[in-house]
Design brief:
mainly alpha, globular
Length: 96
């Protein structure tokens, strides 16, 4: 996933879904962490489409992690969260 290609939430969610189906949880965690880092370390507003609402990953826990993690990353930068992030349920305590 490294390189100059724009990482988007829809693309990462699809990759997470493929990883979870294959049983590769470590890769799914790496993907989501990498995108969090891109959002936190970016400058300016996120490029159009980067934080579009993704399709479900097949795991409600990962769906909530995507939403709450990105809401937090944007908050750290003083930017508003997208509607889909604000409307996500709370992350369960075992995922904190």
């Amino acid at each position: 996933m490294k390189g100059s290609r724009l990482l988007t939430t829809p693309h990462v969610a699809a990759e997470i879904k493929r990883s979870l189906v294959a049983g590769d949880i470590e890769f799914a965690d790496c993907l989501i962490t990498e995108l969090f880092g891109h959002v936190i370390n970016a400058t300016g507003t996120p490029p159009h489409g980067q934080l579009d609402e993704p399709r479900p990953t097949g795991s409600g826990q990962y769906d909530v992690l995507l939403a709450t993690g990105f809401a937090y990353a944007l908050e750290l930068r003083g930017l508003p969260a997208e509607r889909w992030m604000r409307e996500a349920p709370a992350l369960s305590p075992e995922w904190l």
